[in-house]
Each structure stands twice: as C-alpha cells, then as structure tokens.
TrEMBL record:
It comes from Roseivivax marinus. This is Bifunctional protein PutA. In the N-terminal section; belongs to the proline dehydrogenase family. Keywords: DNA-binding, FAD, Flavoprotein, NAD, Oxidoreductase, Proline metabolism, Repressor, Transcription, Transcription regulation. Residues 32-456 form the Aldehyde dehydrogenase domain. GO terms for cellular component: cytoplasmic side of plasma membrane.
Length: 463
C-alpha cells in the first residue's frame, strides 16, 4: 500500500531533463520523452547536450577534492536519498523505461547497493582524473549509478552520458547526487545520443571511460580512445551476451521452468544477463517444453505500473520492430514454437519460443523476450559446451542438474563470467556476486566486486 501510494503521487507528473554543467554551456533542442507502454503519454521533456556542451563541461571538470571519509559520507547520503525518494524513482522507471514493479524495486535496490559497497571502499590510490560514464537504457538507474559511484568513490570527476531513451531517471538521480554533496565540477550530466558519446570519448580532457552497451559501440569507443586519448587511458566495458542454459534429465522441471521464465522474460528480456538459448536433454524435451509453454501462457503482459504485470513493453518502436522481424523470420522457416497476442498500443512483445539446432544458428543477440531452444543427446554435454564457447561471448550460463560431478565439470569447461546452478540467471548481487563477462562480453573486472575500483585509480609504480 505504501508503495502504491508513493507511486500514485507521480501518475501524471511530468519530469524535465537537461544538461547539468558546472559552467554556462550551450545546449541543443528539446524533445518529448515518450512512455513505451503508452506512446502518446509524454513523461516529460529532455533538452539535449551537444558536442559544444561536452567541450564546456570537460573544461570545467575537476577531480573530487575531498577526503575518502567525506566521499564515503556523500555516497551513503545519495543512497539514503534514493531510498527516501523510492516512489518517484519507481514512477519514472515505470513510465520512462517500462519497468515492472518487481524490476523497479530490484533496480533501486541494486543502485543503493552499489553506492554503499563502493562507499565503503573509498580509500586507496589517487583517481585517474576525468571519467566519461556512458550508460544504457536497460538498467537506467542501476548501471548509471554503479559507474558513477565507482568513479566518484575513487575521487574522479565524472562526465555522464545516460542513454538517449532514459534521460529523465538519470537527471533525477544526478540531482539527488548533487543534493547529497557531490560538487558540480565533479559530476556533470550530458543527455544525448551517439554524437555526444563520441564527443566524450575523443575529448583529451577525458582520462578514462566506463561503458555499458553493445559490443559494436564498445569497439567504436576503443578505437576513438586509442586515437584521441592519452595512452593507457582505461576502458571498462560491459557488453552483450548470447547466454545459454543446459537442462539435463535429472533437473527438477518445475524449478527449471520457473527459473527459465525469469531468466528469459523478466525485464521483457532486456538484460545482458538474460537467457537466450536453452538446451534441453532430448529424452525429456517434449514434456519439458509442454510445461514451459504452459508457464509462458500464464505470464501477464501489461502496463508496468500494474502489480499483476510479468512482462512490460520493450523500450521503443525500433526495438520492437527488430524483435518482430526476428520472430517473423522464424515463423517463415517453421521454427516458431510459441508466441501470443499483445495489447495493440504500446511497444509490447509476447514471450516467444523459437526452435534452433544450436546456438550457432542464432545470428545476433535479440534484446527482447525471445528464447531459442535446442536439444542435446545424453552423451552430448561436452559438444554443447564447446558450441556455446565457440560463439565467443562469455557473460552468463545456467545449469539445471542434480548430478553433483557435472556442476564442477561444466563450470570448469565453460568460458563465462557468471555461472548459475539450479537457479535463475540474473545479473549482479553487489558484493557477493559481482557481475561481468569475457570475450565479446566485456573487458572485466566485474562490477560490484573487489577489483572493480582499481581500474578507476592510478597505481604508483613499484620502487
Ligand atoms: P544499446 O543496444 O544498449 O542501445 P548502445 O551501445 O547503442 O547499446 O548504447 C549504449 C550507450 O552508448 C548509450 O548511452 C548510447 O547513446 C551510447 N553510444 C552510442 N553510440 C556511441 C558512440 N559512437 N560513442 C559513444 N557512445 C555511444
């Protein structure tokens, strides 16, 4: 009830986002911010930064001149402010990012955890200098906050560019950071798209970049940094995945089905950790898939702010069109096993199941509630693992089994950042389960883990 009341107060509220710069700076156009569940409903307005805004902000950026104790206090104060303002943060997450209540609660929790975890580790070597933090729309509060909290905990100045789809939550969060005591010169916000990101990663005042987004963008940033920034400027990148799960014939089917639905369809599949390719042992496949499609039928697609919603909208019309064309292709090939109708308005995609022969058949990461399924023979586990490894991504992997030796064997052979056994396959638990991948999935180290902050510091050469 308290949550409902807090969210309800913001039902028709309009927010505004704009560059937050430490100096007078030119800004660009203003546009409406749409609601992905109800595209005609404007959630607010955004005034964009331009490359000129970036130049002015970069000139004004100054590493945070405060003691480690002061930085710790301020980071914890930000966490307090997030907790005090949860109703407003949930409402923005529902209306701007299409997050369900469960997702919004988890997201604010994760953001707070990052602030407190890094806030407890502020002492150490000096900062790198000025960090560009470039964040995605799928965790527009948690990843945005995690990157900034790490850079600030170590005393860097931050130039933050949130994703163009989610400027409002970023702006509100940045306001709370300033209110908590982060100086204007240590945190500046630059809402914009790729052009603003490009201006950041080529500005010589920038001495490091933290990035989460697509593998392709990470490669562009890597090149831009090599050309324009000082040699050795760190790039910390968290990128895509093509994550698999193996269910063998000893797994508990009810447990596996519940975990698969969460891993593949929660957040409408818009998580880099999400399950994309399920391998089921062939002798149980028919009955298992029947149970899985039954569970998919029971999932409710709907408005993010309704408590009964399991699957909200995807982020925008472009995302929906890309996912729909993937589903249409599968249907044309006779590989579509299950999908359902969705509400007419809003960018909804139903939980969908597509048959493949193996992960090699999946051309790209489809960022939506689409699960591919293949079977494997009782003696085919190692071939399956090799096929998954050969794909080159290495973010998450799930295993459902009750054979103890198999857990060890598979975990050792699988080249991934995070292995999940007999549970759902879902991102970070800050502190106890740091998150990050290998290969095409990222540079490491893992966010929310013990070595992450080291990359935001300069380590003196040994004498
Ligand atoms: P996604 O598939 O999550 O949208 P992107 O890699 O396109 O992945 O976006 C992640 C972040 O990277 C966003 O903030 C986006 O605006 C930013 N971005 C996109 N292109 C560039 C670029 N050329 N340079 C820097 N940042 C970029």
């Amino acid at each position: 009830e308290a949550i409902d009341e807090a969210r309800g107060a913001f039902e028709r509220h309009q927010w505004a986002a704009a560059p937050l710069c430490a100096v007078e700076a030119p800004a660009g156009d203003t546009d409406p911010v749409p609601n992905p569940a109800r595209p005609r409903d404007e959630v607010g307005q955004v005034t964009w930064a331009t490359p000129e805004t970036v130049a002015a902000a970069a000139d004004a950026a100054r590493p945070w001149d405060a003691t480690p104790e002061e930085r710790a206090q301020v980071l914890n104060r930000i966490a307090d402010l997030y907790e005090e303002n949860y109703g407003e943060l949930f409402a923005i997450l529902h209306r701007e990012a299409g997050k369900s209540l469960l997702d919004a609660v988890a997201e604010v929790r994760e953001a707070v955890d990052f602030l407190r975890y890094y806030g407890a580790r502020t002492a150490g070597d000096p900062p790198v200098g000025v960090f560009a933090c470039i964040s995605p729309w799928n965790f527009p509060l948690a990843i945005f906050t995690g990157q900034i909290a790490a850079a600030l905990a170590t005393g860097n100045a931050v130039l933050s560019k949130p994703a163009e789809q989610t400027p409002l939550i970023a702006h509100r969060a940045a306001q709370l950071m300033h209110e908590a005591g982060v100086p204007a010169t240590a945190l500046q916000l630059l809402p914009g798209a790729g052009e603003v990101g490009g201006a950041l990663t080529s500005n010589p005042a920038v001495s490091g970049v933290a990035f989460t987004g697509s593998t392709e963008t990470a490669q562009i940033i890597h090149k831009s940094m090599a050309k324009n920034l000082a040699p050795g400027a760190p790039l910390i990148a968290e990128t895509g995945g093509l994550n698999a799960m193996i269910v063998d014939s000893t797994a508990l089917p009810e447990q596996a089905v519940a975990a698969i639905c969460e891993s593949a369809f929660q957040s409408a599949g818009q998580r880099c950790s999400a399950l994309r390719c399920l391998y089921v042992q062939e002798d149980i496949a028919d009955s298992f898939l029947e149970m899985l499609t039954g569970a998919m039928d029971a999932m409710r697609i709907g408005r993010p702010w309704d408590v009964s919603t399991d699957v909200g909208p995807v982020i925008d019309a472009e995302a929906k069109a890309g996912i729909a064309s993937h589903i249409d292709e599968a249907e044309a090939d006779g590989r579509l096993l299950k999908t359902t109708d969705t509400p007419d308005t809003g960018h909804f995609v139903a939980p969908t199941l597509i048959r493949v022969n193996g992960i090699a058949d999946i051309e790209r990461e489809v960022f939506g509630p689409v699960l591919h399924v293949a079977t494997f023979a009782a003696d085919g586990i190692d071939r399956t693992i090799d096929a998954i490894n050969a794909k080159g991504y290495g973010l998450t992997f799930g295993l459902m089994t009750r054979i103890d030796d198999r857990v060890q064997h598979v975990s050792e052979r699988m080249k991934v950042g995070n292995v999940y056994v007999n549970r759902n396959q879902i991102g970070a638990i800050v502190g106890s389960q740091p998150f990050g991948g290998e290969g095409l999935s990222g540079t490491g180290p893992k966010a929310g883990g013990p070595d992450y902050l080291d990359r935001f510091r300069v380590h003196p050469a040994p004498q």
